[in-house]
Amino acid sequence: VTFAASHTGQWAIDSVSPVIGETLAPGSRLSVSEGAADLAADSIWTLRGVTSNTRYSNRTEVDRLTAVQEGLGRPQATLAALIPIRKSAAWWALAQDERRAIFEEQSRHIGIGLDYLPGVARRLHHSRELGEPFDFLTWFEYAPEHRDQFEEMVRRLRQTREWDYVEREVDIRLSRA
Ligand code: HEM
To answer: Does the pTM exceed 0.85?
Structure first.
């Protein structure tokens, strides 16, 4: 999946806010393309990621998520957020079980996220193995009536121990007619 900021694309870029680390340049529109992307020659920046298998969710969690989550592209979901994230060397030096413990037992990432389903639809993209500037491209779609809840969720997640390991994060908000 390729996210490209330029002057064309389905989504209007409403804001680009640095959370931690270096920000990204603001563009006017964002295009999201799946598969081989036909890249605009004039793109301001391009970020690539792939959807993948789960790493941290256990069976119970997967079942809970599957029971309530909704897919992307709902007509009423006219707002979106693209939040690229890079984690620190300290995070990647941990063992899988240590990362899982921080992610869920200590930070309750899935527990918090579940409070906001099905209002928020999401898709996680992995970028680390592609040699990209971020490890993850997180994508969310929601209706204007869920805007406040989305803000609350992001605030809660950023207060967790997991976020101590986030060394670069940019918060890009979008809308479509
Ligand atoms: C809509 C509510 C949310 C739910 C239900 C949710 C759920 C999940 C789940 C289940 C995973 C683990 C996937 C796996 O097993 O590999 C995950 C990973 C992740 N989520 Fe969320 N999430 C939500 C919101 C967010 C938000 C708002 C952000 C960013 C501000 C975020 C950032 C991430 C990142 C960066 C990862 C990858 C973590 C890693 O592999 O180290 N999530 N999320």
So the answer is: yes
- Determine the distance separating the centroid of ligand 1 and the alpha carbon of 109, expressed in angstroms: 7
Question: Got the DSSP string for 87-156?
Answer: E-HHHHHS-HHHHHIIIIIIT-HHHHHHTTTTTSEEEEEE-GGGT-S-SEEEEEEE-GGGHHHHHHHHHH
Burial of residue 101 (number of CB atoms within 10 Å: 0-12, 13-18, 19+): middle
Q: Which residue has its alpha carbon closest to ligand 1 atom 24? A: 113
Which atom of ligand 1 has the smallest separation from the CA of 81? Answer: 27
Query: Which 8-state DSSP code applies to residue 164?
Result: G
Which mutation among 17, 54, 56 tests ligand 1's pocket best, with the greatest number of atoms within 8 A of CB? 56
How does pLDDT run along the chain (177 residues), one tens digit per residue? 999 999 989 999 999 999 999 999 999 999 999 987 666 678 999 999 999 999 999 999 999 999 999 999 999 999 999 999 999 999 999 999 999 999 999 999 999 999 999 999 999 999 999 999 999 999 999 999 999 999 999 999 999 999 999 999 999 999 998
